[in-house]
Write a structure and sequence with these properties.
Radius of gyration: 15 Å
Helix content: over 70%
Largest sheet: none
Structural class: mainly alpha
Number of helices: 5
Strand content: under 5%
Order of helices and strands: HHHHH
């Protein structure tokens, strides 16, 4: 059996991250293990600016401070 093509593997990981972002609340509460496994595989560079703020809950943290705190 031939080894998996790295491009195909990257595409598969990107598709999995897209699915998680589409159903983020579900995965955070019901399937944390899948997120942990994918984190170990890496977040594709083109998705990092979307994934990391969600995982870090940065929007909810921003809302907890007074208006103008983050500019």
């Amino acid at each position: 059996q031939l080894p998996e093509n790295p491009v195909d593997k990257d595409q598969k990981v990107a598709e999995q991250w897209n699915e998680i972002m589409d159903k983020f609340e579900h995965y955070v509460f019901a399937e944390k293990e899948k997120i942990q496994i994918l984190l170990r595989k890496g977040i594709p560079s083109h998705l990092r600016s979307v994934v990391w703020p969600k995982l870090a809950k940065s929007e909810s943290l921003k809302r907890s401070f007074k208006k103008g705190h983050y500019q």
